[in-house]
């Protein structure tokens, strides 16, 4: 019960990493706000997650809104406080990674990626921080960045800058918000098998190659990221701020 009676808000919680994190937070005693895109698949997935969370005795609501909008963060925090009176943890996780080559990158795809992953996130973090400051009890903000914040990818030139941006945002926000007891940290997943890379990893050769690149000999699953998120959210991490936690099965260090 590391998060007993805390209110945790997670964006992109209908599927993948966010969903696993939402479920683990509930198991650890938290009430959860499940934010998603509002598209039909997100709505259905969020409803089934609410039922799972209620079955373990915790409360959950969902909010569907496009993370690319600069107003979405305020909306999510407003709905969270309306439902649960406070927020203790904000996890900025929503993101897209539409693999595409650099030389013919369209302005539309670039802007969609940067808006969805980073620009909306900036103001979502701001909205969460203002609410936590108002409450006066500190809080924990976590950005789901990526190993891609540290290394490049030829098909990810629009994506990697957003992940480096989120890491940098957490470092600067740790400085800006320390005086309010608000901790800000980044989680950097390696390759985790989810819908985001389903097409890419459908190529068996690529799947086997990526698995063999890790020290542990396997790709990650969403649950592998849930524990580190719970840790950073919890009071176990009360002196951890401005940090980044690489959770990649040893992919980064495995040069040869
Ligand atoms: P996923 O399974 O595709 O889930 C993406 C989540 O983000 C869904 O809940 C989706 O909601 C939401 N989302 C997508 N576009 C949105 C939008 N415009 N507005 C609001 N919500 C939106 O992806 P994932 O692998 O769990 O990725 C989660 C985060 O982890 C991303 O930020 C990603 O960059 C990061 N990450 C993933 C990996 C990996 O290997 N999987 C590695 C490093 C970092 P809907 O259901 O409504 O579409």
UniProtKB/TrEMBL annotation:
Associated pathway: Carbohydrate degradation; L-rhamnose degradation
Keywords tagged on the record: NADP, Oxidoreductase, Rhamnose metabolism
Catalytic activity line of the entry: L-rhamnofuranose + NAD(+) = L-rhamnono-1,4-lactone + NADH + H(+); L-rhamnofuranose + NADP(+) = L-rhamnono-1,4-lactone + NADPH + H(+)
SUPFAM superfamilies referenced in this protein's UniProt entry, alphabetically: NAD(P)-binding Rossmann-fold domains (SSF51735)
GO biological process assignments: fatty acid biosynthetic process; rhamnose catabolic process
Source species, domain of life: Bacteria
Presence of the UniProt keyword Hydrolase in the record: no
Record bears the keyword Cell membrane: no
UniProt cross-references to SMART domains, sorted A to Z: PKS_KR
GO terms of molecular function: oxidoreductase activity, acting on the CH-OH group of donors, NAD or NADP as acceptor; quinone binding
Domain named Ketoreductase: residues: 6-183
UniProt-listed Enzyme Commission number(s): 1.1.1.378
Protein family according to the UniProt entry: Belongs to the short-chain dehydrogenases/reductases (SDR) family.
Record-given protein name: L-rhamnose 1-dehydrogenase (NAD(P)(+))
């Amino acid at each position: 019960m590391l998060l007993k009676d805390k209110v945790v808000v997670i964006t992109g919680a209908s599927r993948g990493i966010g969903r696993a994190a939402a479920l683990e937070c509930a198991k650890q005693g938290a009430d959860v706000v499940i934010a998603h895109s509002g598209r039909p698949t997100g709505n259905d997935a969020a409803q089934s997650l609410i039922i799972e969370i209620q079955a373990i005795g915790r409360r959950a609501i969902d909010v569907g809104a496009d993370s690319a909008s600069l107003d979405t963060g305020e909306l999510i925090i407003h709905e969270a406080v309306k439902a649960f009176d406070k927020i203790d943890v904000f996890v900025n996780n929503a993101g897209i990674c539409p693999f595409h080559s650099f030389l013919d990158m369209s302005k539309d795809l670039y802007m969609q990626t940067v808006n969805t992953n980073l620009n909306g996130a900036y103001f979502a973090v701001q909205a969460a921080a203002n609410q936590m400051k108002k409450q006066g009890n500190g809080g924990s903000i976590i950005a789901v960045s990526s190993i891609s914040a540290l290394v490049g990818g030829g098909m990810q030139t629009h994506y990697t800058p957003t992940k480096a941006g989120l890491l940098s945002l957490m470092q600067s926000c740790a400085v800006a918000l320390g005086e309010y007891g608000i901790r800000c940290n980044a989680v950097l997943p390696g390759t985790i098998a989810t819908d985001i890379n389903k097409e890419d990893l459908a190529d068996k050769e690529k799947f086997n190659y990526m698995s063999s690149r890790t020290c542990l000999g396997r790709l990650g699953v969403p649950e592998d990221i849930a524990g580190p998120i719970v840790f950073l959210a919890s009071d176990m991490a009360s002196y951890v701020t401005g940090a980044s936690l690489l959770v990649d099965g040893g992919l980064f260090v495995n040069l040869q």
